[in-house]
């Protein structure tokens, strides 16, 4: 009797357990394997929702909250609103749509998002300041070819993990100061193909880990001398096909890690304004494109990197005692020989200042130097043209100049204010003997005194 009761109780227990398992599976199955949105295809491990090229006009409803990859590219989606996406998405592709507006905080729930592609949305001309709020783990952001004209100053606020930023081929005219200041881990910045005209002092502030900066195919005319001050780790810089006539040497000194530099396709002026960049190239050990001069006329077609010290001999240099003080003209001993032998026919004493400083000589290169024009009329009528006195200098025969370069003629004394302060020093004095020696002058003076006394006192 007791055995029968035991068997009956055991059967009831097993039946109850089976019923509980069935009910549990019925309840939990929809949550574990959610239905895939209409017109989409879903893949497990990792959970992927693919809805590309389906002519969708809105983000489809019912995207599983645990979807790690969501592909919505090549549709006709026009707006992105808050709460459109789940919590666990790591990759979100929205390129090739017709997005015109992104609500502030539209991605705020995507706390683990690592890649966001919004490229090729030609109607996305404006972004809200908080459009990317909450994406503190975002590593790659694509916004190429969106016709963006401006970027809000706080657009990249707190995107500390961002490493790749694609902003090429938009319509950006300028970049605000401190726009990228929070992007301390940014490695690649693509800004080519825009309409940027100038780079200010603080435009790249904070980009201490930037390795690659592409700024080619813009309209850049001016670069602040401190624009690259935080780019000490930059190795690749592209500035070709812009409107640069000059580039501050200090800006390049700040980018001390540069290895590959492209500056071709710019209208380089190779007058005195090119001296700082030329001096930087003397010490730089980098792979560089050519820098062809467009002015002044006698240097047109030459490569700025291979100009000679003589080309800058008349250029004023900053006074070493003041960053913004007066300027002084300096000559090396090698260029002084040329000026002493070929002095201008007319010169103003105010044209030069005395200086004992000398300029380093540029190492010889297999490039023939170009010389000053024969007449002043050959100079360009621009702010970079040669001065009247510089243009009046006669042309020197190449063989004559280079045969004496570095072996100046000690018999030629300096002229007027071209002389250093201690030009009377024996090293600068003439070695040829004077027609009147000191002994002869003394004898002549004594004779004059004797004759004077004779006539006075009989």
TrEMBL record:
Keywords: Cell membrane, Cell projection, Glycoprotein, Leucine-rich repeat, Lipoprotein, Membrane, Receptor, Repeat, Signal. GO terms for cellular component: cell projection; membrane raft; perikaryon; plasma membrane. The keyword Repeat applies. Its main location: membrane. It is a lipid-anchor. It is found in: Cell membrane; Cell projection; Membrane raft; Membrane. Pfam families: LRR_8. The keyword Flavoprotein does not apply. Belongs to the Nogo receptor family. This is Reticulon-4 receptor-like 2. It comes from Betta splendens (Siamese fighting fish). The lineage of its organism: Eukaryota, Metazoa, Chordata, Craniata, Vertebrata.
């Amino acid at each position: 009797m007791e055995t029968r009761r035991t068997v009956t109780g055991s059967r009831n227990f097993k039946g109850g357990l089976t019923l509980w398992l069935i009910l549990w599976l019925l309840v939990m199955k929809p949550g574990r394997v959610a239905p895939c949105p209409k017109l989409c295809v879903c893949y497990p491990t990792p959970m992927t929702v693919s809805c590309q090229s389906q002519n969708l006009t809105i983000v489809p409803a019912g995207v599983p909250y645990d979807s790690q990859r969501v592909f919505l590219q090549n549709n006709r989606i026009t707006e992105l609103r808050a709460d459109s996406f789940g919590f666990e998405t790591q990759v979100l592709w929205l390129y090739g749509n017709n997005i015109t507006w992104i609500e502030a905080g539209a991605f705020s729930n995507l706390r683990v998002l690592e890649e966001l592609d919004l490229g090729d949305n030609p109607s996305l001309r404006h972004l809200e300041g908080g459009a990317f709020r909450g994406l503190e783990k975002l590593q790659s952001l694509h916004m190429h070819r969106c016709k963006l004209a401006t970027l809000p100053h706080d657009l990249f606020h707190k995107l500390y993990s961002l490493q790749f930023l694609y902003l090429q081929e938009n319509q950006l005219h300028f970049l605000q100061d401190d726009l990228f200041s929070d992007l301390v881990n940014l490695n690649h910045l693509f800004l080519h193909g825009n309409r940027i005209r100038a780079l200010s002092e603080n435009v790249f502030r904070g980009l201490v880990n930037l390795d690659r900066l592409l700024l080619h195919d813009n309209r850049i005319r001016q670069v602040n001398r401190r624009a690259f001050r935080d780019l000490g780790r930059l190795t690749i810089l592209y500035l070709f096909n812009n409107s640069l006539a000059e580039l501050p040497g200090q800006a390049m000194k700040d980018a001390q890690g540069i290895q590959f530099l492209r500056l071709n396709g710019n209208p380089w002026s190779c007058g005195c304004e090119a001296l700082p960049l030329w001096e930087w190239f003397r010490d730089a050990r980098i792979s560089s494109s050519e820098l062809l001069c467009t002015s002044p006329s006698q240097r047109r077609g030459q490569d700025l990197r291979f100009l000679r010290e003589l080309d800058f001999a008349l250029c004023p240099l900053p006074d070493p005692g003041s960053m913004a003080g007066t300027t002084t003209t300096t000559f090396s001993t090698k260029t002084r020989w040329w000026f002493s032998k070929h002095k201008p026919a007319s010169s103003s004493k105010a044209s030069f200042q005395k200086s004992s400083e000398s300029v380093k000589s540029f190492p010889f290169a297999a490039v023939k130097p170009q010389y000053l024009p024969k007449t002043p009329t050959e100079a360009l009528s621009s702010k970079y043209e040669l001065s009247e006195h510089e243009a009046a200098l006669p042309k020197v025969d190449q063989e004559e100049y280079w045969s004496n370069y570095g072996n100046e003629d000690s018999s030629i004394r300096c002229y007027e204010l071209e002389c250093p302060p201690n030009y009377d020093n024996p090293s600068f004095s003439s070695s040829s003997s004077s027609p009147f020696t000191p002994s002869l002058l003394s004898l002549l003076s004594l004779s004059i005194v004797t004759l004077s006394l004779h006539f006075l006192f009989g």
